[in-house]
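Regression check, zinc ion case 434:
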Amino acid sequence: MAKIRDPRFECMDREELRKLQGERLVSTVKHEYENVALYRQRMDEKGIKPEDIRGLDDLRYLPFMEKTDLRDTFPYGLFAVPTKDIVRIQGSSGTTGKPIVSGYTAGDIDIWTEMMARTMTAEGVDENSVVQVCYGYGLFTGGLGAHQGATKLGALTIPMSSGNTQRQIMMMHDLGVTHLCCTPSYALYLGESIREAGIDPKEMKLKNGSFGAEPWTEEMRVRIEELLGINAYDIYGLTEIAGPGVSYECEAKRGMHVNEDHVIPEIINPITGEQLPYGEKGELVFTTITKRGMPMLRYRTHDICRLHDEKCDCGRTFVRMERLMGRTDDMLIIRGVNVFPSQIEGILAGTQDVMPHYMLIVDRVNSQDTLEVQVEVTDAIFTDSLGRLEATKRYIGEQIKSVVGIKATVNLVAPHTMPRSEGKAKHIIDRRKL
Ligand code: ADP
Ligand code: ZN
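Current build output:
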């Protein structure tokens, strides 16, 4: 059985944990109220003062935070400490062209690192492990998050970042990698490529992997485990809260334990905002209770899920999140990148010679996500040379790459050929079988 890194917290008596969460919540609310204008204003509007929040039971009275709050206050408006105390920025795509950014103090980085160290300990990583990180390094939290956790555990850490599959396989083989970190779809692709290269995974030392950042299924888990001959663990996180390691699976593989001494999870009814009991399906909401740089109170993730508080076979008492069951908004996750159709619509609306009549077609080819953008051109485009069609296509592709951060195939279609809908237009066809 894999070790438990921090049984004092991970296996804490739930009553004691609730008390600790309550104390940390009270101090976070005070810190936020005193330092973040937007949140102070929201609490004032609701007529709530920090003193009114006396423990965990009062959490439900606090106002929510949303991704749009990060956008509206971009870049530094939600910082609760002076910028000189912030040592890192990480980011993720927002709902429009601007990314959303999160600021970390040195202490916040330590906490995030610790959450990832617990995660990877539960997955069997220790100082003897060789960890290959194929999540992207950069603003995206995946790469650095896994890197920090593995390094903290004293594992030999290989910062491969994403891409270049042949080189990934060579390193995995030659360096005797025991633990793989990447998106589940990339794990599948790697597994297939290894077989195609004529390598028997049994010749490799690979034992386990942390796979997350996008939705996947039990069927995919079985497939990855077979292809690579490993244990595949689910791992969840989001930039606004910390990054990967907000929750993690243990060897029971029956849901992801939430690092509850650092974040409080809630499930709410997405329409009324009312808190729902454990076991019920609804929108997942997180409150950070140890972060200082940019704390988040009741942050609405738009992820749909269920929470369970029964003790787990592994001995941990932290609640478990079920696999995510979808989203309450239209965010797509394509190759691990958050994509909002509104971002692409904005680009198309700002492009000459096309109409914002479009369709986004998402598919999975050879285990890799693909995005095709079909968009209608106007008659005007034909008044010029053919070069104008090509240039428009290229321009849209480049804009999507730079604003959204992913590669898309752009196909221009003739005027008046895209289906017009009465009522809400349908802009997405997702052919991936998830
Ligand atoms: P990251 O991609 O590092 O997880 P982002 O902030 O870019 O962080 O994206 C967060 C979103 O990604 C989550 O709200 C959720 O929708 C999705 N996500 C992250 N991990 C998982 C997972 N294990 N299963 C399903 N979806 C996930
Ligand atoms: Zn467990």
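Comparison notes: Residues 92, 141-142, 212-215, 234-239, 243-244, 301, 303, 324, 333, 336, 338 surround adenosine-5'-diphosphate (ligand 1) (CB under 6 Å). The radius of gyration is 23 Å. No diff flagged against the previous build.
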